[in-house]
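Troubleshooting log. The previous run stalled partway through. Resubmitting the same two chains, unchanged.
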Amino acid sequence: KQEVTQIPAALSVPEGENLVLNCSFTDSAIYNLQWFRQDPGKGLTSLLLIQSSQREQTSGRLNASLDKSSGRSTLYIAASQPGDSATYLCAASNQAGTALIFGKGTTLSVSS
Amino acid sequence: EAGVAQSPRYKIIEKRQSVAFWCNPISGHATLYWYQQILGQGPKLLIQFQNNGVVDDSQLPKDRFSAERLKGVDSTLKIQPAKLEDSAVYLCASSHKETQYFGPGTRLLVL
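Second attempt completed without errors. Output:
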């Protein structure tokens, strides 16, 4: 049974700092892995999706990597801004078209 | 392109009452999901539809929860009777291929 863990649960950084959020999963036979952002009282916004055959994906200041052999994914945020403050969730899918299995998230606070 | 719509946004009920949530997915998305997100947790799948058929409802508490997706478009999720532990955000998502698109959720408080 796939389990997803995110560490740390919370992170506070000053504006401009580069940071890394960690995600680990127990079953390396994943189909894809997604990173989401959730603002308070809002739904989830998809940030990056990495297929199992890929090693990383980039969008703007965000870079997500995937290492299936070690069961880990990281989300790198460059030059953090106060607007990046939110909860970041990673989620794994074991097969095409199946539901996502989520971690508990990392709540990020970027201070100006 | 319009996103996933959900209503109501907030609901407060007393335990043992019933409640229903509505979801309108993105046009053309065949797959629809209902997730439950308890405070401080990640979302957990309740039920997945492909068109109007159920793909996975293994984690749906069927003694109190029910869901339907008539005509393969809109979907409703019902809780009857509600318990205190049902207090959560109920998220609806739809997908066409790989990416799931989430609605804003319905925040339920059971007193």
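Takeaways: The two ends of chain A are 41 Å apart (CA to CA). Chain A touches chain B through 24 residues (CB under 8 Å).
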